UniProtKB/TrEMBL annotation:
<protein>
    <recommendedName>
        <fullName>SalK</fullName>
    </recommendedName>
</protein>
<dbReference type="Pfam" id="PF21863">
    <property type="entry name" value="HTH_67"/>
</dbReference>
<dbReference type="InterPro" id="IPR054058">
    <property type="entry name" value="HTH_67"/>
</dbReference>
Length: 137
């Protein structure tokens, strides 16, 4: 039951993240290119997402035309601000279940999940760099 609750919260956050990306005017490949641009993971880590080199380059060009990336594909100040706004909006959209749960029960859920999370991290099975943004920004 605990795993299901965590999964539902993760899925809810993911839905809000997609909404925040769309609201920010980022299409799917631009979302990944801009995420790579802030240094979340090396570009090669995104290869498994299925975008061709041409699609990636076209998205990078679109973002550069909007002054969100520089010529090297690195986020500009404006690009970093946009990504920060996406994350802020994602957090805002993800907060309602936690508010509904209340402070005491939210803390209890965190206490219950914390040891499991530490065990998972301790296994070394999670990649040190991933496209999920865990431990970035």
């Amino acid at each position: 039951m605990l795993w299901q609750a965590a999964t539902i919260l993760r899925e809810h956050r993911g839905d809000g993240h997609l909404a925040a990306l769309l609201t920010a005017g980022l299409d799917p490949v631009e979302s990944l290119v801009s995420f790579a641009g802030i240094g979340a993971a090396p570009v090669a880590a995104f290869a498994g997402r299925g975008w061709s080199e041409e699609e990636w380059a076209a998205a990078r060009d679109r973002l550069a035309a909007r002054a969100l990336l520089d010529d090297a594909g690195v986020a500009t100040e404006r690009g970093r601000a946009l990504r920060a706004e996406v994350e802020r909006r994602t957090d805002e959209l993800a907060a309602e279940p936690w508010r509904s749960l209340g402070a005491a029960d939210s803390a209890r859920l965190s206490d219950l999940l914390g040891p499991f999370w530490l065990e998972v991290l301790g296994t070394g099975l999670l990649p040190r760099q991933s496209t999920l943004g865990i431990g970035t920004v």
